[in-house]
Amino acid sequence: MADEATPLVGIIMGSKSDLPNMQACMDQLDAFGIPYEVKIASAHRKPLEVHAWAEGAEGRGMRVIIAAAGKAAHLGGVVAAYTPLPVIAVPMKTSDLGGLDSLLSMVQMPSGVPVACVAINGAKNAAILALQMLGTGNEAYRDQMRAFKKDMADA
Question: Starting at the edge strand that comes first in sequence, how are the strands of the sheet with 87-91 ordered?
Fold first, then answer.
């Protein structure tokens, strides 16, 4: 994790059990050289902690938040309620419904509280989307995205 720079991306997940799946997100952000912060807090078990973390994210320098959760998966929506920053949700695959429960919880947000959503266990794509969002205000990140897409096309 990039400790020396101010985190531009906040990664929050509802449980330590989400860490192995979210490693692809962290690895991709590392490859892009994007500093990030990781927080583990459940929207249901630690709502005040989630509230404080989300509300303070912008002040800590973050520009995008990635929220991963499974089952009821309200974490992304709760975070989005407390920050003006864009939130990317990563639905975690579950043993109960294969992640469909997580996905539906994330994409069925009420009007006024949007959350972008990637595929079930789509952690790597969340990092790529974060780079694209950061690139809207930063030419270097746009160039990096162009190079990433070119490398994919050339592979």
Answer: 36-40, 9-13, 64-69, 87-91, 116-117
The answer to the question of residue 45 being in a domain is: yes
Which pLDDT score is estimated for 2?
39
Helices assigned H by DSSP within the chain:
19-32, 47-56, 75-81, 100-107, 123-135, 139-154
CATH number of the domain that 103 lies in?
3.40.50.1970
How many CA within 13 A on the CB side of residue 30?
10
Q: Which domain, by its residues, includes 115?
A: 9-145
2: in domain: no
Do 75 and 15 contact (CB within 8 A), yes or no?
Answer: no
Cα angle value 152/90/111 (rounded, 5°) = 115
**Residue found by looking up tokens 């952000």 in the block:** 29
Q: What angle (nearest 5°) sits at the alpha carbon of residue 122, between those of residues 147 and 83?
A: 90
Residue 124 lies in a domain: yes
> What is the per-residue pLDDT for 25?
98
Q: Which regions in the chain score pLDDT beneath 50?
A: 1-3
Residue 134, domain member (yes or no):
yes
